[in-house]
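Customer escalation, tier 2.

The customer says the design service returned an amino acid string that "doesn't look like it belongs to this structure." They asked us to rerun it and document both sides in this ticket. The original C-alpha cells are below, unchanged.
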C-alpha cells in the first residue's frame, strides 16, 4: 500500500503516520500534540519544523508545480497534480506539497 492523504490524516496502509489537524502543520502520528515535521504557515512555501522561519524546502508559488527551495524559478520537482496522485489525494494546494515532500518524494 502507498501513502494516502485524506485532507487530515496521512496513512500508510491502515496505519496513520501523520496528521494535519491544524491546517498548516504536518505532525507525526495521530496526536495533535505530535512532533511537527513541517508547515505551510506562509501558504505557498513548505518549511521544515514548526516555525514560519524554518528552512524552506519547496514552494508552489506558480500554483502548478512543486519547486525546490524558495524561488519561483527553482528546480521543478513535480507537477502539483502528479504529487496529489502520488499521495492519493484530490487536493492540489499547499497541504499536498507538504505531505508529498515528507512522505512521497
Amino acid at each position: 500500500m502507498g501513502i494516502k492523504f485524506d485532507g487530515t490524516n496521512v496513512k500508510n496502509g491502515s496505519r496513520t503516520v501523520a496528521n494535519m489537524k491544524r491546517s498548516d502543520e504536518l505532525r507525526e502520528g495521530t496526536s495533535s500534540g505530535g512532533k511537527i515535521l513541517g508547515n505551510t504557515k506562509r501558504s505557498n512555501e513548505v518549511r521544515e519544523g514548526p516555525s514560519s522561519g524554518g528552512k524552506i524546502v519547496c514552494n508552489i508559488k506558480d500554483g502548478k508545480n512543486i519547486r525546490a527551495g524558495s524561488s519561483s524559478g527553482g528546480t521543478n520537482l513535480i507537477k502539483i497534480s502528479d504529487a496529489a496522485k502520488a499521495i492519493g489525494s484530490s487536493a492540489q494546494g499547499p497541504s499536498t506539497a507538504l505531505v508529498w515532500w515528507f512522505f512521497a518524494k
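Tier 2 assessment: The sequence is consistent with the input. The two ends are 16 Å apart (CA to CA). Residues 83 and 105 are 8 Å apart (CA to CA). Sent an explanation to the customer and offered a walkthrough call.
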